[in-house]
Amino acid sequence: MVNIELRDLDKVYNSGKTEFQALKNINLVMDNGGLIAIVGPSGSGKSTLLNMITGIDRPTKGAVIVDGKRIDSMKEDKLAKWRGENIGIIFQFFQLFPTLTALENAMLPMDLAKKGSVKGRREIAKRNLELVGLGDKLNNLPSELSGGEQQRVAIARALANDPKIIIGDEPTGNLDSKTEKMMFELLEKLNKQGKTVIFVTHSKELARRASKRITILDGQVVNT
After folding, report:
1. Per-residue b/e over 151-172, b at no fewer than 16 CB within 10 Å?
2. CB-CB neighbours of 34 under 10 Å
3. What count of Cα atoms within 13 Å lies in the side-chain half-sphere of residue 167?
4. Could you give phi then psi for residue 2, rounded to 5 degrees?
5. What are the pLDDT digits (tens) for 139-194?
6. Mapping DSSP to helix (H, G, I), strand (E, B) and coil, where does residue 161 land?
7. Helices and strands of the chain, counted as H and E runs
8. How far apart are CA 178 and CA 64, in angstroms?
9. Average pLDDT for 33-37
């Protein structure tokens, strides 16, 4: 079954009299359960493409269809609810709340969705932190964690609502090579558990290990 489909998709940004076309006539199908790398030079449109898939941004033209639902035409409140239930996002710069512990950061998506009881949320967050190897750092603040540990908290947070799709915008971009390897192995593990994993990377090695590689240049898909 097709998980994600982009049809005739354009994205144009306007700033005063200046117009910039970030994506041009994108037609893509990403199969359910894939480990998909998006590659290309800086400024080519990779992050914009991810923003289309997550619904963080909307196309100027075309359609974004996920599991048969056209998300680009959803109302904002419905889209936010859908995203919280179906998408887990891992950012390059972690984006953890500095005053919250690792456990509290990992609980946050469930808190926002008011999912289950507080006790239940804590148990799920604890389990996810144990999955990423941070069972002994539950009460640490981000400032008390290394960069790799902070990224693992971000992955645990992305798993909070058990999403079908994990999106990573250069999730290993700020990590040393050893930690990068460990993080990618974790993404591979999640993929083998049945989650669709889509990630932007500049690493040729990581891109080679993906089941599918999509190359973007000047806002256009040039290779899949």
Report:
1. bbbbbbbbbbbebbbbbbbbbb
2. 18
3. 21
4. -70, 130
5. 999 999 998 899 889 999 999 999 999 999 888 777 778 888 888 888 898 899 88
6. coil
7. 7, 10
8. 36
9. 92
Torsion of CA 202, 39, 217, 92, to 10 degrees: -60
168 near 187, Cβ under 8 Å?
Answer: yes
Of residues 124, 156, 127, the one with CA closest to residue 142 = 156
Residues listed for the chain: 224
Q: Which domains, from first to last, does the chain contain?
A: 2-223 (3.40.50.300)
Mean pLDDT of the chain: 91
CA triple 9-67-195, angle to 5 deg: 105
Continuous H helices in the chain:
46-54, 76-86, 102-113, 118-131, 147-158, 177-192, 204-208
